[in-house]
Design goal:
Blueprint (H helix, E strand, L loop, with lengths): L9 H29 L4 H6 L1
Amino acid sequence: MNTKDRLFTNKMILYFIIPIIIEKLLLRLLDITDNIMVSHLGEDILAGL
C-alpha cells in the first residue's frame, strides 16, 4: 500500500494517540487518588467508587 493511498500517516496517528494516552493516564491517577482518599472509610464506600 502506498503512502498516498492512506488516509492518515503514521506520524498523524501518533499525534492523535499521544493526547489520548495522557488523558487515560491522568484519569487513572484520579481514580487511584479517589480510592486512597476514601479507603479509610470502609469497603462499602470503596465499592461505590
